[in-house]
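ZP: hey, is the flavin-adenine dinucleotide complex queued? I don't see it on the tracker
AM: it wasn't, my bad. submitting now with these inputs:
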Amino acid sequence: MTFVSDLIEPERRTPVAMDVDICVVGGGAAGVAAAVSAAQCGARVALVERYGFLGGTLTTVSLGSICGLYSVKGREVTPVVGGFVDQVVRELDQLGGRGETVHWLKTASLPYDLFKMKVALDRLTAIEGLDVMLHSLVVGVAKDGEHLTHVLVETREGRVAIRARQFIDCSGDADLCARSGAPFDLDLENLQQPTAMFRMMDVDAEAVARTDRAALHQHLERAVNDGLDLPRTAGGVFMERPGLVHLNITKVSIDGAAPHPLSSRELTKAERLGREQVLLYERAFNQYVPGYASARVLDTGAAIGVRESRRILGEYVLTGEDVLGLARFPDAIACCAWPMEDHAAGRATRWVWLEEGGHFQIPYRSLLPRGVDNLLVAGRCASADHAAQASIRVTAQCFAMGEAAGVAAATAVDQGCRPADVPAHELRHALQARGAIIETTP
Ligand SMILES: Cc1cc2nc3c(=O)[nH]c(=O)nc-3n(C[C@H](O)[C@H](O)[C@H](O)COP(=O)(O)OP(=O)(O)OC[C@H]3O[C@@H](n4cnc5c(N)ncnc54)[C@H](O)[C@@H]3O)c2cc1C
C-alpha cells in the first residue's frame, strides 16, 4: 500500500476482557483443534476468530473434502491422522454431514457438507473452559521482553486485550508470530497461487461421476483451444450432495504472480478477478463438460483461498527432502502422507508424490517459533519450507498440528514451563492417549 501521510494516534487505555491460560488466534482447522484440545486438558482457553463462523479455509473458502487423512496403496486406505479429527468426523456423522471416502489421482479424501461443518465446529467448541470470540480481529500484542503478555483485539464493542500465559498462532498467515517479532519466511517470488472456490448446482450427478480428472482436463483444454482463456484446465470436483458440486479450478494471479497475500489492495483485485474467472468457468462447464449443461453457480466462498503466505522459521524447518525421504523424528507429533501439491503458475498443478503407501512425520519443533518463549504455531503457517508446506498444509495435518499445540500449551501451563521445555515423549504419550496417530509402520 502507498501512504499519503502519517497520523499519530492518541495514547489509549485498553480494557482487559479476559484473563485465561491459553489464547488461540484463528479459528480454522488448526485453531479449533488447538482450542478444544487445550480445554479438554483442563485449561481455560480463549479462541479469537475474525469471521462469524469457525473452520477457516474449510468453511470460509469452502473446500468440499478433507485431505490428508490417509495413506493410499492401490485401493487400500490407511488412516494416518486420528485424535481430534475423529471428534470432527463423529460430529459431522451425527449431523448427516459426512460423505463417503473418495479415491482420486493416487490419493483419497473425505467429502463433507459445508454448512454442517460450521455447525459441527460450533458444537465441538461449546465446552467447559473454552470461550469463543467471533467477529474479533487480533491487531497487536503486548510483550515483556521475550514473553507475550496480551493480544489486542478489535471487537464489535471496540478494542480489548486478552491476557494469557500461553499463546497459539493458528491464523494461517502467522499474524500473531509476525506481530510478536518471531522470524518468518514470505517468498513472494515463489508463492502458490490462490483459488476462488465455487459451488455449482443442478449438475447431473451420474454424468459428473463418469467424468474423471483426465476427462475433465480434456474437455477444458477443448474450451481453451476454442478461445476461452481458462487459467487452469486441471482441477478438483467434489460432490457435496447429489446435484451440488464444489469446484477447485480457478487460479488467480496478478501480472503472472500470486497476489500479495497480506496486501488489502492486491487481495481486493484477487477477489474481483476470482469472481470473473468463476463466470468464465460457468460458461466453459456449461458448453464443454458433460453433466453441466444446465448447471449454475450457486456461490463462491466467503473469501478467496490463500494457500501460502508467511511460514514460520521455527526450531526446526521441515523440508521437501524430509517429505520425500519419509523422515522420522524423535519429537514427532503427527504423520503426513499427502503429496506436495503446488499450485504454481501454469494451467496444471505440480504434484510430487511420496513413495506409495509411505508417510513422513512432523516434529514438535516445527510448532515452536524462535524468539518468543510462550508462543506456539500450528497449521499452514507452521515451520516448513515452500516444498514441505505444499504437503502439510492440508486439513487433516492442520487438525493434527493444532491438537499437538493445544496439548503442549496446556502441559506448559500445568508444569509452569515454556512450550520448548515440554518433554516430547510426554507430549507424544498424551496425544496417543487421545487417539492421535504418530507411530505407524513405514
Ligand atoms: C483454494 C484452496 C483449496 C484447498 N483445498 C483443500 C482440500 O480440498 N482439502 C483439504 O484438506 N485442504 C485443502 N486446502 C488446504 C487447507 O484447507 C488449508 O491449508 C487449511 O485448512 C489451513 O488451516 P489453518 O487452520 O492452518 O488456517 P486457515 O484455514 O487459514 O484458518 C486461519 C483462521 O484464522 C483467522 N484469522 C486470521 N488472522 C486472524 C487475526 N488476525 N485475528 C483473528 N482471526 C484471524 C482466519 O479468519 C481463519 O479462520 C485448500 C486450500 C485452499 C486455499
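AM: back. The chain has a mean pLDDT of 96.
ZP: great, adding it to the tracker
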